[in-house]
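Retro notes (design track)

What went well: tokenization of the new backbones is finally stable.
What didn't: we kept losing track of which sequence belonged to which structure.
Fix going forward: every design gets posted as structure first, then sequence, in one message. First example under the new rule, 448 residues:
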């Protein structure tokens, strides 16, 4: 096996134009797929194989994966325990539809109920985070007889007709037509406070804005408030510790359900806790999940109160939702996270990562902010620390330079200037050292 911690001295990656096979794939991708399905890198790569925290391209070149398929590969690529369970299930039965009893679906639903607050009693399975948010919007709008939703600016909740409009980021809003009437509140973005205040002397004006918006722009009885504990696509924007408790008190005053979109933050990723809402000490009325639950096998869903779950009075099912393969993978994945104590591991390694990145910030003026929890960590790049002018071009160059040196990281944020690190939860402090070493070189190369 190649050097597990490549930091320097690696051969420069083959450029697509040098590799006819990759160039051909890029051409065919562009020819046959929607133009909105973008590719990372000036020279895109095909990841053909993965093992643990590593992925390999067509040339067999190894990369340390610090993005995890967008915070989705939680227990490592080709995890033998998860894969063995999936292979055995494939050989038993792949699909039955939800018209038949599915043992693994029932077991997973029981497990999710046990992991969430007692009032969250019913589970509905989907195949993606988008669909899961759709289900959450459906039950809350039906229950409250309202099409009004309160959402955060800089949020991302999916790519469908309703979820696009719940998302507060122009680059992702292909349509503003919507079945929902969405009211957007300022987000808890301390680095770029919408009110230009400083935490904690701000008095959490962002939380108080929720009440102001409810009272001034809604009918007074919106269907729900939706938020991610840490805004993922928004650039891992991490609210201050008291934010959700203050917001929840306001929601309770008006009897408004809280939809917690845990698509990026669940399953131990944020360290110590299973979910983001636990880290913030609140109980939502609907938990939305997807991404990391089945280690990359498509799955999504919601856990909701009995009252909200019974709001759907018509017939309603998802053909693939809760299918035997995805739910078997999820159970094996949750077992792996629990038996290997990956929640606590994510906290320890994540704290070390954040500490190392602040160290990097001492040498690289382009780093404006480092934030996150556990192994969900963002690095916001700016042209100048005083003006905080976003540096999306530098972010692009860092992504390419890191890839050339054998490291994969993500990118996001309204201005596309935040590097997103969300590796599989199995990474070690030695992996962090390797990643930070490469980022150091990549940042130097990107600003040169
Ligand atoms: C917080 C959040 N919600 C919902 C979604 C949509 O999930 P999917 O892409 O599985 O539809 C995403 C995707 O990135 C997300 O980050």
């Amino acid at each position: 096996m190649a050097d597990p911690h490549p930091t320097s001295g690696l051969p420069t990656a083959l450029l697509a134009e040098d590799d006819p096979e990759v160039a051909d794939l890029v051409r065919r991708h562009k020819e046959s797929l929607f133009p909105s399905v973008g590719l990372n890198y000036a020279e895109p790569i095909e990841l053909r194989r993965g093992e643990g925290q590593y992925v390999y391209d067509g040339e067999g070149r190894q990369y340390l994966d610090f993005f995890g398929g967008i915070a989705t590969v939680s227990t490592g690529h080709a995890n033998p325990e998860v894969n063995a369970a999936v292979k055995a299930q494939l050989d038993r039965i792949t699909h039955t539809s939800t018209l038949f009893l599915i043992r693994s679906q029932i077991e997973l639903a029981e497990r999710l109920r046990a992991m969430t607050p007692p009032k969250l009693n019913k589970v509905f399975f989907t195949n993606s985070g988008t669909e899961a948010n759709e289900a959450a919007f459906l039950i809350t709008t039906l229950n409250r007889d309202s099409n009004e939703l309160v959402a955060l600016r800089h949020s991302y909740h999916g790519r469908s007709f309703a979820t696009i409009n719940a998302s507060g980021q122009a680059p992702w809003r292909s349509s503003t037509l919507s079945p929902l009437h969405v009211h957007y509140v300022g987000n808890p973005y301390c680095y770029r406070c919408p009110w230009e205040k400083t935490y904690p002397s701000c008095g959490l004006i962002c939380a108080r804005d929720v009440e102001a918006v409810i009272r001034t722009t809604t009918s007074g009885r919106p269907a729900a408030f939706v938020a991610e504990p840490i805004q993922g696509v928004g650039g891992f924007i991490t609210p201050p510790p008291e934010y959700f408790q203050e917001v929840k008190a306001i929601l309770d005053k008006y009897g408004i359900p809280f939809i917690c979109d845990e698509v990026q933050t669940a399953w131990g990723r944020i360290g110590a806790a299973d979910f983001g809402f636990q880290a913030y000490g609140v109980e939502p009325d609907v938990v939305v999940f997807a991404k990391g639950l089945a280690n990359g096998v498509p799955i999504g869903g919601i856990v909701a109160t009995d009252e909200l779950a019974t709001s759907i009075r018509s017939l309603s099912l998802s053909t693939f939702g809760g299918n035997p393969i995805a739910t078997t993978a999820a159970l094996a994945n949750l077992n792996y996270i629990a038996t290997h104590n990956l929640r606590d591991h994510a906290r320890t390694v994540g704290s070390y990562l954040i500490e190392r990145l602040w160290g990097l910030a001492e040498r690289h003026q382009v780093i404006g902010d480092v934030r996150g929890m556990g192994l969900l960590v963002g690095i916001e790049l700016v042209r100048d620390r005083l003006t905080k002018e976003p540096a999306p071009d530098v972010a692009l160059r860092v992504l390419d330079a890191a890839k050339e040196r054998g490291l994969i990281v993500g990118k996001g944020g309204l201005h596309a200037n935040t590097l997103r690190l969300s590796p599989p939860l199995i990474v070690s402090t030695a992996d962090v050292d390797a990643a930070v070493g490469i980022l150091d070189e990549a940042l130097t190369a990107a600003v040169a």
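Added context from the reviewer: The first strand starts at residue 47 and ends at 51.
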